What we know:
Layout: H1 30-54, H2 72-79, H3 86-91, E1 100-105, E2 109-114, E3 119-125, E4 138-146, E5 153-158, E6 163-168, E7 173-177, E8 180-184, E9 191-196, E10 200-205, E11 210-214, H4 226-229, E12 235-236, E13 243-249, E14 252-257, E15 262-266, E16 279-280, E17 287-291, E18 298-301, E19 306-309, E20 315-318, E21 324-329, E22 333-338, E23 343-347, E24 355-356, E25 363-368, E26 372-377, E27 382-387, E28 403-409, E29 415-418, E30 421-423, E31 430-431, E32 436-439, H5 440-447, E33 450-456, E34 459-467, E35 470-474, E36 480-485, E37 495-498, E38 504-506, E39 509-513, E40 523-527, E41 532-536
Parallel strand pairs: 29-41
Antiparallel strand pairs: 1-2, 2-3, 3-4, 5-6, 6-7, 7-8, 9-10, 10-11, 11-12, 13-14, 14-15, 15-16, 17-18, 18-19, 19-20, 21-22, 22-23, 23-24, 25-26, 26-27, 27-28, 29-30, 31-32, 32-39, 33-34, 34-35, 35-36, 36-37, 38-39, 40-41
Amino acid sequence: MFSNHSANHVTTEQTHLYSHRKPLSRPKGKLFRLCTKVGLTAGIVTGMILSTLSSVSPTYAANDDQAFTGSAPDRAVSAFSSGSSPESSVTSNTAQKLYYTQVEGGHYYTVALRSDGSVWKWGRNLLGELGISDTVRYRHTFSPVRIPQLSTVTAITTSGEGYSVAVQADGTVWQWGAGRAPSQVSGITNAKRVTAGPFTSAALLQDGTVQSWQTPPLKLPNTMNEDAEKKPTLHRISGLKNVVQTTLSGYDGYALKKDGSVWTWKEADKAGNPPSKAKPVKGLTNITFITSKGGPLMALDSKGRVWRMDVQGKRIPYHHELKVKTLDASSNYVLLVTTKGEVYSFGKTVTGKQGKIKQLSDITHVSAGYYHSLALSSDGNVWGWGGDKYQEAGAPATSPGGMVYIPVQAKLGTDIYVNGKLLQSIYPAVETSETLQLPIKTIALALGATFEVHTADGLISHYTLKYNDRIITIKPNELQYTVSNLNKLDPQEEQVIALHEPIGNYSGATTAPYDMLQGLGLNVIWDRSAARVTIDEVN
Length: 539
């Protein structure tokens, strides 16, 4: 589960490769007696921590009084509509359990909206798909990374090709990915929802009208792209009002109106040119949902029936044996969610299998990524299956060839707070089967500590972490570390403290178990239910 193959990384910190091993053989003599004494103490503390964690629900589900029906964006708004900011709610002593409210799949990556209005991504970052930095690239991550600068987000979308867009509670629109860090889309201040496409993107405004703009091209590292950086030209789609949803397929745009009618327009294939005036799609009435990502338009009517539009513009019944409440489609296959919360997949599916996904139930939302599929359950958990070469499904591949045939549950992104401040890291906190691993260089920088890598004969011999009057020394592969006090005038024996996992490497970052930081005299708490770890000075 915990990856350390540096050959897969494009931009990495250099570190020694290790493999997990069994606990160290029993040492002899005075050191062993000291290790035993310290180990027993650490064991008691660890036992208390594990006892506390075991009492926490691992599902991150919403409380009963928080649950309600509605769209994913509506659920997201409710999480922080009481007037407090997401950050203040997360750091309070009575923080609500966090959960996902929306999830979207792209080519080799996933983007998800959390109930506190934060946005998280996992999967491939070779082309800057994650949007965490405009220069850093790495191969994969199943551990969610928080997108910087975004808060109070109410809706998300992705083009599938790395470009993502979000709406914040204040109506502003933000874009990121495809090689760029988050930035505001100028000129839009009253958006409700957004749809990102490979050529153009569209914002549904609060007054029921629609504006579109050209999707910026991929931005390569350390390059300036004038088209990507300039202010976008916004076009209001003529003929559209009272719109409740939009979808895009190539240069074709579609809008669902409040009266259940569907309208279409054509985007210009040249930058700066305006789109065509919208006109109604014949044969579609009483429609409640539409989708068309890269393929033909599909529509869901008020009776739970799905219709597919053919190339002649004629509606074709699509699996009317199922009563459907929502769906999503890519250019290759379709995901249907029935009123019972069951999921069906048809077409050139991501696993090659047709029909019901037996392992899923109580599903409220699905996303048809190009190579992987995603589902959101009513308790706020994300499930992924299909192609998982870059861990875009949300966990390491469970089958040969980088595949996940049985849906796996994605992790909830973990926030890191250092002395009360949210730490924004381009590398994630990684929850393993044994512990929580933290990007130690980023942590050290935030603390004002010094982390050093020591080498001998071209290999890493050990690491040191200095903070105030303490220094931690740890060797690669070791399941223990030593703590020394730099201000002691009289030489004393070093403390040796056991760990569940050794120091490691994940997606190019050197990582260390969170509890190792306790050796610096810090108060370190991992609250799994609240999806956060806090690192504070001891008063």
